[in-house]
Amino acid sequence: MSNNTNIATNKLAAKAPKPKHRKIKLGRDDVIYYSIIHLLLILLLIVILYPLIYIVSSSFSSATAVSTGQVILLPVDFSLEGYKAVFSNDDVVRGYANTILYTVVGTFINIAMTMMAAFPLASVKLPGRNIVLFLFTFTLVFSGGMIPTYMLISNLGMINKIWAMVLPGAIMTYNLMIARSFIQSSIPAEMREAADIDGCSDFRYFFSMVLPLSKAVIAVLVLFYAIGHWNAYFNAFLYLNDRDKYPLQLILREILIANSIDSSQIMDPEVAAAKQGMAELLKYALIIVSTVPVMCLYPLVQKYFIKGVMIGSVKG
């Protein structure tokens, strides 16, 4: 009987109508408010996306279409002429390889130095902690200057070496503060006390517990540092003399300068217009070539980005 009763009860429960969720009706003022917000967001999206769409479309258009302003939204007279001109230069491939090397090595050094500096500074028991924090923060307001920095790099024997590209900015103070705040607010002190009771050393605690629990902020720092190294131009301009060691940004700058023209020096207006159109097309192709690799990095760290930035910069 009990089985039959349970079966009947289950059937009645299945047939019973499910409660309907009542929708909250918005008032007239709320409808107007949300309509305005949606309109502003759509306009903001257009303002942000249109320049990118225009650059991509122009890079795949012909030089004539670009110079005459025919490109508005979609490519006109589809052409790969700009990309052929960019990649026909052997220095571009070498510049890509150098930039990837500088970015990977530099980012690894940045993360290692920043996290190892943030870990002790997150402890309130560190002797002289406030003095060290003040010295780091002081560099946000005052720096050594370009000439003293160049003299230091030269005296250290790093001119025309990879270390001149990766060591001067090994620790960025802003990123250090984000990492310190994250460790201080997200890793409970009780965990450190339990590790001390178990006889865990500082190095083991750092590598076995702090780093695995800091994946969110590490992902954010990787993004910040990697973008900085990828776009590095001024340090290479100052410290590198060997063209074979130039990063991508410096190579692209030289290509752009080499293809820029002064139309007043060309008598034939058609030739001047053609060269000017090619220079414009080359400019858009160079923008895409230099930004696409960085844009591919964002999806990999997107799920950590908001969490790492918010916890690291607000808490603590």
Per the CATH scheme, the topology name of the largest domain is MetI-like fold
- Percent of residues in helices comes to over 70%
**Shape, per Cα inertia axes:** flat
Strand fraction band? under 5%
Q: How many strand units?
A: 0
- Radius of gyration based on Cα positions: 29 Å
CATH architecture of the largest domain: Orthogonal Bundle
What value does the average pLDDT take? 81
Structural class: mainly alpha
How many DSSP helices? 16
- Can you tell me the residue ranges where pLDDT is under 50 for at least 5 consecutive residues? none
Largest sheet: none
Core attributes:
316 residues; mainly alpha; MetI-like fold; 2 domains; 16 helices
What can you tell me about this protein's structure?
This protein has 316 residues and is mostly helical. The chain folds into two domains: 24-81; 83-314, MetI-like (MetI-like fold). The protein has 16 helices and no strands. Helix 2 packs across helix 15 and helix 9 packs antiparallel against helix 12. It is flat, with a radius of gyration of 29 Å. The chain starts with a helix and ends with a helix.
